[in-house]
């Protein structure tokens, strides 16, 4: 038999099983804008329906006092007849009959309807009381009156009393209201809890998430009073309902688990149970309702479902919630510059149905395309073909993602403050909250608004706590491609309330960030599901519409498209926060696992990580996520648990940091949040190995990962501390990395801040930030792995900022072993741990070269040749930039200094000057004996004091550097700069033709007269010399000099040519006996002597002309006068005799 599709029958069964839905019921809109309502006050009103009336309207106007004192209005309707009551949050919703299941109720058998309506809207609120006892619906013609059968109730004019009063309720995760017929049938029975659980799951999937399902829910509220009346008074009927529901237990369980994808086959006994329940339903309702039910039953053949499957009829009747169209759709990213037309042409051959850019509402497509194929069975082949096209960067199928919310429990808004007086099993750990109350002391001032995009199921912005916090006109709905961002699930509103609900306004609750503005981006449908395309578009849209923080409380499989969107947001300096997942698995879900995201796990009120919270590598921190109260669209503050609730705590604090300092980058936000988080790591003492009984040993053990101090994969870097993070920005605080080889804690803080370093309760050191905004605190060296608290505060300022950075002392790599390095080496070699970076630094610790150790730890790094005695420092660092202690390397000088350069040294010098290697020791030797030493200055210049050395001596000069290396000798000969002694010259007369004398051996001898050389010669080895000359006149001055081999000339020896030639015989004039003088001519200036008989009778001197006139006494005639001339040299001429004449 062909399997028949089935689902609508279950709706008919559920018409009297499902009472509470968190989703609004939308029916036909009322006409007009006036309801003719009456104002309802706290004074009860008693009223009665007239025969022509079916609806009464009331209006309640909450006052400021009502809002500040109460959380709810308890609205009570009492009547002996079956009446319906609905409460609406606004006139608009009343006109459109738009409210929530829990604000719809009914009276029956004098059982009142009581509705707890939250004061979550500004009001006024509207109340509708309906009477179906006439048997007619609103607007139904009386022509049906004749059709009333015996089962129809008599037409009555019901009397009722309506009232309300203020009420204060703690947040709750339990339905509020009376028991529904199904509960009356199964409650407190053996299988009751399981059946109700499955039925509610079916309600939340098939009914609550589709418009058609909500219509059935509305129909249920019309039938419920009549069903309830019969079941309360008829025990046998209750027993009958229970027995039939038990028969359907397996069907309910499968449908609850698999939803509209169930392939369950209806059995014969189940068909009988369906028939029985359908009959009970028919017999319990008025005629006009009976007609509607029978019409729906006929559409599916409710009595002929045996061997049918639960499948496509759900889709046919618009009850299908899953989305099948993703099965043949993919996202393709084209490479930059590749034309779309060329790609389209190629893809047509693979069965292309459509291709559209991934862009909506001013969001650029980023070369992303949504491609839909025709044949689903060839979809995988098409993906491979498209992926291989040269135009394609990547391709992936569209996948499904879900909101990450778990079951709800407990009470109180414990994540924001310690609830004093809370004792017993619900006691809250005082350290579990995020220090919200202390934070308030810091954020009283004006903060800049920061836009937080909640990419989720939408946000109900009509709630009083959110109406001024949500940018509803800026948001977008990527599910329906409209501007309607209203939340039809509740998840996004709950998340938004945690972030930004208005505080101190009397309504509901307090959000964390008063400066946050919510940008609602709806990417998840009413079931909390969304696909790759919608989520990626939502992220891109948020990035392009002013978001500074994006909250992603959702998860699913990895997607390159979403990863691209996250990268795009990161490049725009947007901080993205995501929930780690609720499976309790050792794997952070996506997109929290992306490197562009801050991954957040969940903690509970005991200040330990929630058991459902995903953990593992990549988890950044944890935040309160269990039993978190927040707003939902029905106005109540409801508990929810999940990492979905933890993520918005972090998003809210991130927005506060950005409101303080808008230029913070995502990485800086992540650093501040993680470094200021509180350590909550839990060491399991009872089971330290993490083994469980019965768990077999792993065949292949997992590789051991390095333990990062301060980080564990269960809680990341710790639990969020909003006060500490906010204070860190206010104080401009930061603490540098601390290694186990350091003795100083350094960082930044505003001038005057007090800085304390603690090891537990023990203070290791204290300091203050200086005017430069930096601090240094001296502490002892700490062991690696130790956690220190660095507390930075404005000491003495009440309620001032104080932040605690939790710093793990990290293990530095062991310092390297470095081989000696000389000034001729071109490689630095050594050993350290494998695969480390080797840093070579100069004397100022500036890195001049880097390299790496190989797999064995050895390294060999080419460097420039270094000067001798140069100081280098060598360290190694790992991939976390942790650096070892330094090894000091002094470059060994093995190069001999150059031979000194020496200036000439003469036999007259007492200093040897020259240049050599800077600071070298200079030594001068003669014949191996040191004659002087000195030290070159930093420029290399030197001076050696010595005694005068003989010309021709050889002096050997050497230089020795600091390393003890000696240069080769520089040998110089002492230059002869001493002139020879004045030569000794023998007398030379005017008859001489040789000048003889003695001087320095081998010297050249020269004789000059009036500067003109008259002769030269060379002294022999004894110094004797002979110079041949021409005869020189007497009294000629001859200058004799000698020049030695080096060219030194002696002083002149001047000799006068000795006059050895006697004067010529004088010529004498006649002398008579009367002469008293003798006249004549002789040699100039000669002395004339006149003798008679050898007796001198007169002496005189010739003048310069040689004329002489010598006076004598008169001589007798005949006397012989002998006249001689004597020159100045004493040479005497021959005498001339003249006889005195007789005068006449």
TrEMBL record:
Single GO biological process annotation from the record: proteolysis
Sequence ranges assigned to domain Peptidase S8/S53 in this UniProt record: 448-691
Entry annotated with the keyword Hydrolase: yes
Source lineage: Bacteria, Bacillati, Bacillota, Bacilli, Bacillales
InterPro entries with a match to the protein in the record: Big_6, Ig-like_fold, Peptidase_S8/S53_dom, Peptidase_S8/S53_dom_sf, Peptidase_S8_His-AS, Peptidase_S8_Ser-AS, Peptidase_S8_subtilisin-like, Peptidase_S8_subtilisin-rel
GO molecular function: serine-type endopeptidase activity
Bacterial Ig domain span: 738-797, 812-893, 897-976, 980-1059, 1063-1141
Cofactor: Ca(2+)
Cited SUPFAM superfamilies: Subtilisin-like (SSF52743)
Protein's organism: Bacillus salipaludis
Family according to the record: Belongs to the peptidase S8 family.
Main location: secreted
Gene Ontology cellular component list: extracellular region
Active site: 456, 491, 644
Pfam families (UniProt xref): Big_6 (PF17936), Peptidase_S8 (PF00082)
Signal sequence segment: none
Keywords: Calcium, Hydrolase, Protease, Secreted, Serine protease
Region of interest called Disordered, as start-end residue ranges on this chain: 682-703
Protein name listed in UniProt: Ig-like domain-containing protein
